[in-house]
Amino acid sequence: MTKSKFENQEKSNHEHLVDTKMTRKYLAFSPSETVERIEDVLDFKAREFETIGYVYAIDENGILVGVVSLKQILQSKHGTQLKEIMNTNVISLKQHEHQERAVYVALKHGLKVIPVVDSEHRLLGVVTQKSILSIFHHEFRKNLFRTSGIKHVKEIESMDTPVFSLVKVRFPSLFIGMLGGLIAASIVTNFEHVLSSYIALASFIPVIVYLTDAIGTQSQTLVVRLLAIEPGFPVSRYVLREIKIGIILGFVFAAMLFVAEIVGWQQIKLGIVVGMAVFFSMIFQAFFSTYLSIALSRMKKDPAIASGPIATIISDVTTIAMYFAIAMMILQIF
């Protein structure tokens, strides 16, 4: 990567951090300040602030120690000190966190404004409701396009965007998907002798692929949300829980498909193959989707990258390979 490209990438990454979305025009006072003094400031300087919904308490070092809503300020007596009515359990954001976390924190805690602090908990600014809505809109569009395998650029939604530019942003994921499809076709071809003996195996490919794709998408969606809301959650415990969920769901759907196969095709060997393939594929995909998202987050990459056509084709290829490997093993035994 050239120096200019690296610098552009760094600039692009920094543009999506919380500290680029905050304002420094907020109300902050010493904990010993009185309600009367705060109201005087509001009377004469209210227009100078971008947000006045909350009043923040900071000590002599600028460290955030509390917060009070404007409503509570107006309902308190003039002689009341800020420290007497402030909430010391302040929900805040770190300055270098991704902007997407602001949306999740606002939704989880019902906040209209979120303070931003540094590593020493000094108050740097606040993310206003307007900024939170703007971030939500941006992240929603980005994730929507990514799910479709399209790199999100501002010009893509304009009717004036040249056709070639649109082709350029849509081509990569489709090309990778085609390569994945060729790999899947190659796998099926290598097991042609098994298919020729048990043609019914091909009938179950769509349902097995769908179930593994679905559980992978569910796992990935849930862990991405958790990474944004509670980035410090116990990873090992969470991954183990997803594996347990995969085992339970895998067993349930394996049993149902086994019964369906016995009723519809009356081939016990085929039922065992389909059941085992679904069972192990769902367990693997629940683990893989979860761990991949966590690994991307640890590498400072957007975990939502794990969604979309590329992730889908990886799931499809591994599922088909596992399906036919199990088929060959079981059919040889019996």
From TrEMBL:
Pfam families: CBS, MgtE
Protein's cellular compartments: Membrane
Record keywords, A-Z: CBS domain, Magnesium, Membrane, Transmembrane, Transmembrane helix, Transport
Family to which this protein belongs: Belongs to the SLC41A transporter family.
Protein name, entry field: Predicted inorganic ion transporter
Organism: Candidatus Nitrosotenuis uzonensis
CDD domains (alphabetical): CBS_pair_Mg_transporter (cd04606)
PROSITE patterns, alphabetized: CBS
